[in-house]
Amino acid sequence: MDHVRLGRTNLMVSPVGLGCGGYSRLGMGESKDSSTAEGVVKHALDLGINYFDTARAYGTEEVVGKIVHCQRSEVVISTKTMFRDKGGDYMPAEKLVESLEKSLARMNTDYVDVFSFHGVMPQDLDYCVEEYVPVLQQQIQLGKIRYLGITESFRQDPTHEMLQRAVPVGCFDVAMVGFNFLNSGARDQVFPDCLRHDVGTQVMHAVRRALSNPAVLMQNIEQLISTGEIDKGVVNNDDPLKFLTGHPGVKSVIEAAYRYCRYEPGVSLVLTGTGSVDHLTSNVAALTAPPLPDELMSELDRVFGKVTSVSGD
Ligand SMILES: NC(=O)c1ccc[n+]([C@@H]2O[C@H](COP(=O)([O-])OP(=O)(O)OC[C@H]3O[C@@H](n4cnc5c(N)ncnc54)[C@H](OP(=O)(O)O)[C@@H]3O)[C@@H](O)[C@H]2O)c1
After folding, report:
1. Which of 176, 275, 294, 310 has the fewest CB atoms in 10 Å of its CB?
2. Which mutation among 26, 177, 208 tests ligand 1's pocket best, with the greatest number of atoms within 8 A of CB?
3. Average pLDDT estimate for 150-178
């Protein structure tokens, strides 16, 4: 797999990253055991993936650390810290350092490549920048973090209010952005600034539930028709993605969903979250396939281009 540059970090990464969270959590979200999860991480390495996104909150740091340990310098590990306690109050900054130390111990490594604030809402941004960033920058000086990142909560902030303000601030080298063909708002709202500031991006929610589960897709479409974000006349009520699945150049909705994201200007890499080695194999094939045909890109944008209220959950 050819590698791509992760913005100004200059890290060279596979254009596919293994998402170790989401609903799957490497299969552990579906009660599969850690040996299944280890198999998924091993398979990712075999397929040429060198980027792994995990988080303390996912419970998958140990699995990632265990499997990538023997080739640590060849992989890029992204992990995250929460910053509010269970009661919803901001944690003292020392707790974030503690969280970093625990992540390092769980992954049996001395450093994290990308350390991100997890699920920052618009109202959290100033506090994170003023109170926590200086403390984490000290950890960069100590060599425990290479680059700082920030992730949004796409479900609660589907118009990217937080990232629109965070990217120009200048202290975040990597942003995790929600983007898929149901809600492609980041194309105008986030990616141009990421390109301008040379911020590396990792796409989440490329498929999520709406694009992997037809019943959830139908619920989303009904909601979007009711809000006027989709024109009733432009979708086939029984099979709203018939134009996509009926196209000879497309294998499935999921394949098209990953390909839709991969070549977007401003996207560095696309995360795929799965607990299945077979799904991972086909998702890597999708993400290394050529772009979707232009007529499909146009049709997807004609149908869904006005959507700003859903994340694909
Ligand atoms: N705020 C944040 O920081 C934040 C929030 C959300 C996500 N993330 C990160 O982004 C990553 C990606 O998001 P995501 O996990 O939701 O991933 P995703 O790739 O958008 O969607 C994954 C879902 O699609 C299913 N799926 C994937 N490939 C499939 C296939 N070929 N056939 C059928 N079903 C398939 C998976 O189920 P199976 O397991 O059955 O394949 C899973 O339910 C996460 O893992 C996490 O690392 C971060």
Report:
1. 294
2. 208
3. 98
* Confidence category of residue 228, pLDDT binned at 50, 70, 90: very high
Q: Is the CA virtual torsion 126, 132, 137, 143 positive or negative?
A: negative
**Interval 109-131 mean pLDDT:** 98
Domain residues for the domain of 117 are: 4-212+267-290
Residue-wise pLDDT tens digits, 36-85: 999 999 999 999 999 999 999 999 999 999 999 999 999 999 999 999 99
Number of domains observed in the structure of the chain: 1
Active-site residues, by number, are: 58
Whether 186 maps to a domain, the answer reads: yes
How far, in Å, from the CA of 141 to the mean position of ligand 1?
A: 33
Report whether 122 contacts 162 (CB < 8 A): yes
3-state secondary structure at position 16: strand
CATH number at 208 reads: 3.20.20.100
pTM given for the model: 0.98
Note whether residue 117 is domain-resident. Answer: yes
Distances (CA, A) of 102 to 88, 90, 212: 21, 19, 34
Distance 204 CA to ligand 1 centre (A): 8
Name 51's bridge partners. Answer: 17, 76
Kindly state whether residue 240 falls inside one of the protein's structural domains.
no
